[in-house]
Specification:
The protein has seven helices and no strands. By secondary structure, the protein is an all-alpha fold.
Length: 239
């Protein structure tokens, strides 16, 4: 078999894995939209739909991981190809965990509905959930296009989700101080807010994978300025 044919097959395998990652991401995005709808309407039925989707997300993670292992063993890739495969693995894990956070939101909504809780202050949570869900969508788009500029923009936007979380926590503390009867419900909202904040973190992690593929630089646990410095050179993928 010719080297050209082998290369063509490998390219097809990489494209297939990328497509499966994006399909998984689409399912997680759907989970997040449903979780927000369940939260907004306090609908136990929509919450159950989110939990049903979690099983499929978990199965997709296992399927992609298995295919990644087979491709790495068969092709023994190096350089950018190996970075891409490793990044697909990281992105898959982060998508599965984002799906877990959506499921946590759904479980909390179901508990709130079952308890017959009073109407809750949800406007800030809706904004934060919209921001976090948008970041997941943007991170997948950046991964599909290997767009490092978009990846850095996502790192910046994650700060907005963190600020929303911090502001919401301060409001919850005020509610609890003013009316101790709100403590239990406020704690439920705090867990939901933390889940939303973690979804933003997972989107940020996927964006960092983009920089790793393109530049070969691991910017995890590094400052935004350091990440920007890594992409300040040419945009071509390094060999």
């Amino acid at each position: 078999m010719s080297d050209k044919h082998l290369s063509s097959q490998f390219d097809s395998e990489l494209a297939n894995l990328s497509s499966r990652l994006l399909a998984m991401g689409g399912l997680v995005e759907s989970q997040l939209r449903q979780a927000l709808a369940a939260l907004t309407t306090q609908s136990g039925e929509i919450a159950e739909a989110v939990l049903a989707g979690e099983l499929r997300v978990n199965a997709m993670e296992v399927e992609i991981d298995g295919e990644l292992s087979r491709v790495i063993a068969r092709r023994q890739p190096a350089a950018v190809d190996l970075r891409l495969l490793l990044s697909i693995a990281r992105a898959t894990t982060n998508l599965e965990r984002a799906g877990d956070e959506a499921a946590k939101i759904a479980r909390m909504v179901r508990a709130i509905v079952d308890a017959g809780a009073h109407p809750l202050p949800l406007a800030d949570l809706r904004l934060a959930c919209d921001l976090a869900g948008g970041l997941i969508a943007k991170s997948l788009d950046a991964f599909a296009r290997l767009d490092t500029a978009a990846a850095v923009a996502i790192l910046k936007e994650d700060d907005a989700v963190d600020r929303e979380f911090d502001g919401f926590v301060r409001k919850l503390v005020t509610y609890m101080m003013e009316d101790p009867r709100m403590i239990s419900e406020s704690l439920d909202l705090l867990f939901i807010a933390k889940a939303i904040e973690r979804i933003g973190d997972h989107a940020k992690n996927i964006a960092e994978c983009v920089i790793y593929v393109v530049k070969g630089a691991d910017v995890r646990h590094r400052s935004l300025a350091e990440a920007e410095a890594e992409i300040s050179g040419a945009e071509a993928i390094a060999p």
